[in-house]
């Protein structure tokens, strides 16, 4: 196989030829650029939490307090838990469990966590996220948004924080 060798000025000229931007070529023109840390509005009430947008995580995770799994009508798994926002406000939830996830621990082994659906909004981007309930007390961020939510919606600027232009309109409280 013979390598094509171009003088450096020819290679630079080819690199500068106008053409569609990368974002336009691969369908990313409609995606929102956000920092790796943003305010995340969770649930129907839009509880504000400081969250990490983590492209290294497959799924999303939220710090659920007082998590209790129980059987509803003797057959379906349900879970009751509380979420606490940045301002200390707490919201209690009672929802059906979509499934259970086995999460690998850094120390080895796995832990079984309930997975629910939660509406979330970050930087004006809304969607229903599949979220596992975790004890994140030792973590800096109460919610972690993984690739399942971010894909096809958000590009993450890993050098930036709190750069969201669009806000999530949340319902007013009484």
TrEMBL record:
InterPro entries: Asp_endopeptidase, Peptidase_aspartic_dom_sf. Keywords: Signal. Residues 1-23 form the signal peptide. Gene3D superfamilies: Acid Proteases. Residues 33-166 form the Retropepsin-like aspartic endopeptidase domain. It comes from the Bacteria. Pfam families: Zn_protease. Coiled coil: none annotated. PANTHER family: ATP-DEPENDENT ZINC PROTEASE DOMAIN-CONTAINING PROTEIN-RELATED, ZN_PROTEASE DOMAIN-CONTAINING PROTEIN. This is Retropepsin-like aspartic endopeptidase domain-containing protein.
